[in-house]
Amino acid sequence: MKNILPRKPRLLLYGLACFLPRASSRQTTTSNATLACNQAQSILGDSTVQTPSDSDYAGASTAPWNLFNTQFKPACVVLPRNNTDVQVAMRSIFQFDVDYAVQAGGHSAMKGWNNVNNGVLISFERMDNISYDAAKDTITFEPAIRWGEIVATLESQGVAPVGGRIDDVGTGLLLGGGLSFLSPAHGFAADNYVELDIVLVDGTLVTATETNNYSDLFRALKGGANRFGIYPNSSFDAVAQAVFHYVRDVEDPNAALLLYFGALVLPDGTLTSFSIANMFYNGNSLPNSTYGELLSIPSISQSLGPLSWPELVASMAEPQPANGHGQLFGASVLAAGEDHDDLSFIDIVHKWQNFTFTFQSQINSTVLAFTPVPVSQITVGKERGGNAIDPPLIPYSAIQFQLTLPLGVPTISSEMEEGRQLFFQEAPRSPGFPLYMNECDVKQSVFETYGQYEFLKQTYMKYDPTRFNVRHTNGPQGL
To answer: Residue 116: what pLDDT?
Structure first.
């Protein structure tokens, strides 16, 4: 594969500032939401601000990938085409004290993070431009474009962005830090920012870089999520042990791994389980020293060979349409330094199996996924000014627990939700290491696990002293 990435893509994200969970009582009234919608519509026009009776309203409000997030009914949907439209929308939202949500690719399992009831939804579906500046080696793209489209567009120019591993994922990935197959060599996806255009809660547009007056905001957006940016039998034990050894021992920045254990309920009601290792190496062959243990485990099939970057991204496409399925995520993290052993990796797989077997009759599928984060990835971030996540210089694995409900099932049973939360409490987790925002549960306090937690609190208070974002939009808790 041709090397590799524009080191620092320039991204257009739309941001606010904020933190801490808001109170459960929401303040938006129907009249306030109507006033905000009417004001934005009078400035931007009917085609940009859509109400429930308009043609493009339903498409935007039901666009999220997660069934749970298609059940919200915003008072209106703003479909901006440029920065100015976003500013107008935020000014109206701020003036009338209205709840709001922001939607880019819509690929979030967190309920309420990309849609809103009786508030204003800002949908970026019309902002999907992308360009590459060869002289500066930078990418500029708008928030509606998805990683599959970005990769396909840039392939002809010999450019591979540090972005999502699944083609359908949108640019919101970057706000949670972003895990890529190129991360071991180039850091979290967000470590490759060069410049960010941010719309603050009051509608002010600022441009943040590593060195200008908004450098704190620039760093906070590397993992700060929507609080700062609008913008898984016995062979399984062997696999889990191999993943531990990979995380602990592999230091080659050209190597990346996404390994997951999956369980799927078949049409006849039986449960089938499997594990899949996605091994990526930026070179001419897979080194045995890197992947030998995994490849030595007996497998049903293997498909190894050279791929272009677009072919690799396409190979990660989800096997079935996810729309119409309720999705729930959760995160854990396990370190693999000298003071850690493989028992925790095996134990979390057993707990995932136990949950899946217990609730087999109520699920469509479950996944337990491991993404190794090597020291090289952490070091890149530090060399590029640091990020909000700021992990220790010890290799670890981000772990995702994903639950998919049967087609059309709109709610999770209280019994299964209790079991899911029990999994998060009892599953092994290494203290002092960060959870991954984009794969967390809404109840997990991810910010508190960040190395730059205190910095995030201070930066939030600077840019949103009235705590507008926390009071009026859903997002991560814990600050």
So the answer is: 92
Each residue of 185-197: pLDDT tens digit? 888 888 888 888 8
User: What is the distance of C-alpha 316 from the center of its chain?
Assistant: 16
In tens, the pLDDT along 386-404 reads 999 999 999 999 999 999 9
Rounded Cα distance between 57 and 242, Å, is: 49
Give per-residue burial for 171-189: e unless 16+ CB within 10 Å, then b. Answer: bbbbbbbbbbbbbbbbbbb
Q: What is the pLDDT of residue 348?
A: 94
Global pTM reads 0.72
440, 330 Cβ separation under 8 angstroms:
yes
Q: What pLDDT is recorded for position 300? A: 64
Q: Report d(CA 199, CA 416) in Å as an integer.
A: 39
Burial of residue 304 (CB within 10 Å: 0-12, 13-18, 19+) is exposed
Q: Is 1 helix (H, G, I), strand (E, B) or coil?
A: coil
Check if CATH label 3.20.20.150 holds for domain 234-445. no
364 closest CA partner among 397, 427, 318, 331 = 318
List C-alpha distances in Å: 466 to 94, 202, 226, 250, 470.
Answer: 11, 11, 17, 46, 9
